[in-house]
Write a structure and sequence with these properties.
There is one protein chain. It contains three helices and nine strands; from the N terminus they run E-H-E-E-H-E-E-H-E-E-E-E. By secondary structure, the protein is an alpha+beta fold. It has a single domain, classed as Cyclic Phosphodiesterase, Chain: A, CATH 3.90.1140.10. The longest helix has 17 residues.
Length: 183
């Protein structure tokens, strides 16, 4: 199974992101926009994990979740990986909750390392991907009129998510949710 660990945004946040994408997509070219059901905050990409290892991984993630506390996330400014001059990914940053999301990603990273997975090698950047550049195309990104986000997500859990690659794009399926105490 191809897996990652992430946090799903609230319905209100997804609606607000959809509004932003509608506005931005009308003046942008060379981008493949993320569908609403696939919007998420990635904590750690795991890659291929053998089916027989998933049960043990879930137990370790459940233990990790027990040391977490709920927090609020709000969206910030638009950003680009690797940079605005040669983007491959367009994302929305985290305004409130960035420190807590980074801490959560660090905890999840340590679980991955316990499972023999290499560290990502990059500093964690709290973000939500909204578009990817179409290969071989020089993109144009027009951010539209929306510059401020009002919605929030109450993070009281994270999820182990399967990513199935399909011709039309990835399809995500939650394998397990890991609730925080007091969440």
């Amino acid at each position: 199974m191809r897996l990652f660990i992430g946090v799903w945004p609230s319905r209100e946040m997804v609606s607000e992101i959809q509004e932003y994408i509608r506005s931005a997509s009308s003046g942008s070219t060379g981008l493949r926009w993320v569908s609403p059901e696939n919007l998420h905050f990635t904590l750690r990409f795991l890659g291929e994990v053998a089916d027989e290892r998933v049960a043990g991984l879930k137990e370790d993630l459940k233990r990790a979740a027990m040391s977490c506390r709920p927090f609020l996330l709000t969206l910030g400014k638009t950003g680009f990986f690797p940079n605005a001059y040669s983007p491959r990914v367009v994302w929305l940053g985290v305004k409130q909750g960035a420190k807590e999301l980074t801490h959560l990603a660090t905890m999840v990273q340590s679980v991955g390392m316990d499972w023999g997975l290499e560290p990502s090698g990059q500093r964690f950047q709290p973000h939500l991907t909204i578009a990817r550049v179409v290969r071989g195309v020089r993109p144009v990104f027009a951010p539209g009129e929306k510059t401020h986000f009002n919605s929030e997500t109450s993070v009281a859990s994270f999820s182990l998510i399967e990513s199935r690659l399909q011709p039309g794009g990835s399809v995500y399926r939650t394998i397990a949710d890991f609730d925080f105490p007091d969440g």
